[in-house]
Amino acid sequence: MTMPDEHAPHPPKLGGLVPFSSCDYPGKLACVVFISGCPWRCHYCHNPHLQTRSKTPTEPAWDDIVNWLEGRKGLLDAVVFCGGEPLTERWLPLMMAQVKAMGFEVALHTGGAYPERLKQCLPYLDWVGFDVKAPFAEYEGVTQIRASGDPARESLGLIRDSGVAYECRTTIHPSLLNDDALLRLAGTLAVYGVQDFVLQPFRPNGCASSQLLQQPAPADYPSPVTLQQLSKLVPGTRIRAH
Question: 0.90 cut: is pTM over it?
């Protein structure tokens, strides 16, 4: 399978590489490949430098990463594709196919902005971390993009129906999602049959949103009562510190 080289008209636009990670794919030792580009502008984004489709000379080339992976067989379990929004990369299905052919498991962190490309990637995936932003009708309050909940809704359905292992996770901040919104979201996820729902407290690192930075989350957010109610809706609900 041939991938574009550095001189191809549109090579993959990569945003970086984390060589070793034990927290980006549960139970696996993985490397994380970051892809540049995202159509959304989430208030809490801590990788704003990856929102545009650009590649600087300091970022790795895909061929170099593939060559590096050859020497990591038996040492790494998996390759995780992250972003930005990795589904912005048109070469992503082929990149995943390459990694899979090398014997690595493949994982994806995505918000599901491009369901058609997700459909192309699913045959190669072993695990998905699905970033669900809010109740689907309320996505614009987080992403700042109208109707962004529509592709996310479709993508969650695709993941569920694929049989690929996955978790849903939501970055939480009270100015974006109050307790009632969290309960509405969990109710939606329950309808989809979601079993694993991870709440990730907002972290200020890299965030440029004054709205969030000027309003610290109270110590009891979400409240113990809300957490109990969330767990009744989605039994696998838990909080994961970054």
Answer: yes
Confidence of residue 10 (pLDDT cuts 50, 70, 90): low
Q: Which residue from 35, 174, 54 is spatially nearest to 111, judged by alpha carbons?
A: 35
Contact 30, 78 (CB under 8 A): yes
10 contacts: CB under 8 Å, gap ≥ 6:
4, 90
User: CA neighbours within 13 Å on the CB side: how many for 203?
Assistant: 9
Task: Look at residues 133, 167, 187, 176 and name the one whose alpha carbon lies nearest to residue 240.
Answer: 167
Q: Which residues of 17-52 are buried (b: 16+ CB within 10 A; e: fewer)?
A: eeeebeebbeebebbbbbbbbbbbebbbbbbeebbe
Q: Is 92 helix (H, G, I), strand (E, B) or coil?
A: helix
The Cα 187–Cα 178 span in angstroms is 14
Determine the longest span between alpha carbons in the chain, in angstroms. Answer: 57
Place of tokens 């690192």: 205
Give the position of tokens 């957490």: 227
